[in-house]
């Protein structure tokens, strides 16, 4: 079954090439993209089943034997990330197709969008599967190039400005990562992760700490942890709704994944555990305070995105099986729920003409379905029982209590405070946008169509969807599918926790990963 391992990277790249050739055939582009991503979901599911049964699957790219060649490794953590990320990207793709068709493709020009979107997917999958530090760097660079194109779709001044900030910050983190790679190779003579797990242990403690710190800094910027997160709330909300959704759901989680992988495989022992816990607490609290202060739904959700990254670092910093297992579970939960909320925000913008809370109202009466699509994942994000958000946070709290240290208890308190403030922020959005009386300036359904017929259609602000438009089915269905997926995480929480526990055990033991790459031991 090892032949399946490179397919999540290869298929999107081939799909990107094919959709580029089909630039003048919009319908063919759409079908190619959907088929490729659906096939990627199926392959990822097979990899998860196979890695759970037989251990990590390894492929030596180009037939070059490790460590001379690059390897792709599909262990349970990588396969689980592939399943959830491919499922999310497929739903967002269908949503974006619906938005493009409804808007006349002004927001998502198909000749550019589909190839770039598939390249982005390939970069995400490559980062998850990479068994080599430099190949992980390549995955991040693929993400950077594709995400910049997606972020600046429409070429508006606001998006170009936000995209420039995003690129500068991303290039800075990539430069730090590249310098760290050079130092690691200079100190050990290899970049293969399995071989590094053996060789880094032989380095002096101070040298290991410097290398660990540089990698943490690079990945911390990409994961948007405090105080390296100021760029995110100014960059993500300016993009089209599907782009913002896939960015929020996946890009920061690739950084979190890299932190989990390197901290457990390369630098066991928890020398930076206290630092990670302090950063986690600050990320949670500062991020959610920023969310509470926002008056725009997209910016509010961007700050909650930053805040809840802290929960994942919480589990990593504890360096215990339960803490790491809960962190992995929470990553899966957050990818799904955060993406869903940003898609719902796009529907709010389409129906209400804006995401500014002072220009919205009465959406629960005007569009009950939209209210439901926002309400359910919002409660999940806040951690209301019995949703998966509650179960993930409960696992983290239990791990913190079991640790019993001062920082662990401080993190438990910070996590509970963050959860309460998240509920307050979400309730505020619900009261202002959905529950109170409609704003006088809010359009009625069909206003956009009537304005278009009379030649007076006008966008309420730069890049907004047609105000008052009826929600397109191809945008509503994938949003509803992700809502159902979020609910399914609660139903299958037991098996999912078993997978995350097995993945955490393998990460902390390190031997399954190393032995899969080097059955006879690292050279």
TrEMBL record:
Organism: Micromonospora chalcea
Membrane-related topology note: Multi-pass membrane protein
Family: Belongs to the CPA3 antiporters (TC 2.A.63) subunit D family.
Annotated TM spans: 6-23, 30-49, 77-98, 110-129, 135-154, 166-189, 209-232, 239-260, 275-293, 300-318, 324-348, 369-387, 407-427, 474-497
Main location: membrane
NCBIfam families registered for this protein in UniProt: PRK12665.1
Lineage of source species: Bacteria, Bacillati, Actinomycetota, Actinomycetes, Micromonosporales
Name of the protein described by the UniProt record: Na+/H+ antiporter subunit D
Key word Iron-sulfur present: no
């Amino acid at each position: 079954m090892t032949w399946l391992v490179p397919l999540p990277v290869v298929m999107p790249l081939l799909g990107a090439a094919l959709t580029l050739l089909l630039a003048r055939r919009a319908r063919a582009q759409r079908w190619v993209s959907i088929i490729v991503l659906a096939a990627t979901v199926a392959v990822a599911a097979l990899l998860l089943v196979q890695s759970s049964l037989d251990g990590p699957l390894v492929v030596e790219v180009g037939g070059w034997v490790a460590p001379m060649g690059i390897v792709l490794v599909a262990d349970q953590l990588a396969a689980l990330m592939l399943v959830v990320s491919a499922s999310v990207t497929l739903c967002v793709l269908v949503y974006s197709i619906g938005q493009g068709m409804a808007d006349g493709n002004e927001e998502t020009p198909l000749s550019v969008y589909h190839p770039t979107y598939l390249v982005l997917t390939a970069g995400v999958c490559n980062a998850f599967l990479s068994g080599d530090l430099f190949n992980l760097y390549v995955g991040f660079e693929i993400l950077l190039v594709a995400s910049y194109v997606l972020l600046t779709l429409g070429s508006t001044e606001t998006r170009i400005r936000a995209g420039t900030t995003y690129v500068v910050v991303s290039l800075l983190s990539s430069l730090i990562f590249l310098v760290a790679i050079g130092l690691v190779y200079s100190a050990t003579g290899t970049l293969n992760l399995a071989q590094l797990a053996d060789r880094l242990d032989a380095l002096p403690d101070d040298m290991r700490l410097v290398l660990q710190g540089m990698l943490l800094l690079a990945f911390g910027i990409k994961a948007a942890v405090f105080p390296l997160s100021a760029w995110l709330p100014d960059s993500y909300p300016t993009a089209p709704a599907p782009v913002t959704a896939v960015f929020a759901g996946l890009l920061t989680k690739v950084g979190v994944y890299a932190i989990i992988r390197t901290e457990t495989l390369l630098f066991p022992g928890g020398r930076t555990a206290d630092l990670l816990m302090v950063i986690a607490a600050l990320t949670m609290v500062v991020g959610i305070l920023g969310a509470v202060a926002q008056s725009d739904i997209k910016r509010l959700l961007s700050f909650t995105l930053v805040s809840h990254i802290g929960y994942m670092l919480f589990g990593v910093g504890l360096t215990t099986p339960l803490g790491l297992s809960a962190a992995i579970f929470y990553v899966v939960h957050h990818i799904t729920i955060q993406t869903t909320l940003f898609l719902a925000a796009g529907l709010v913008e389409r129906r209400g003409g804006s995401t500014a809370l002072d220009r919205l109202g009465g959406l629960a009466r005007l569009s009950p379905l939209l209210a439901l699509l926002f309400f359910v994942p919002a409660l999940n994000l806040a951690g209301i029982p019995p949703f998966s958000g509650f179960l993930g946070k409960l696992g983290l709290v239990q791990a913190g209590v079991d640790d019993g240290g001062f920082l662990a208890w401080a993190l438990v308190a910070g996590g509970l405070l963050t959860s309460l403030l998240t509920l307050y922020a979400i309730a505020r959005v619900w009261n202002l946008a959905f529950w109170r009386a409609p704003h006088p300036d809010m359009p009625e359904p069909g206003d956009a169509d009537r304005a278009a017929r009379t030649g007076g259609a006008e966008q309420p602000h730069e890049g907004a969807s047609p105000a008052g438009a009826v929600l397109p089915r191809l945008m509503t269905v994938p949003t509803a599918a992700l809502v159902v997926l979020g609910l399914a995480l609660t139903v299958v929480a037991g098996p999912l926790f078993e997978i995350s526990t097995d993945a955490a055990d393998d990460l902390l033991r390190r031997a399954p990963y190393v032995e899969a790459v080097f059955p006879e031991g690292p050279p």
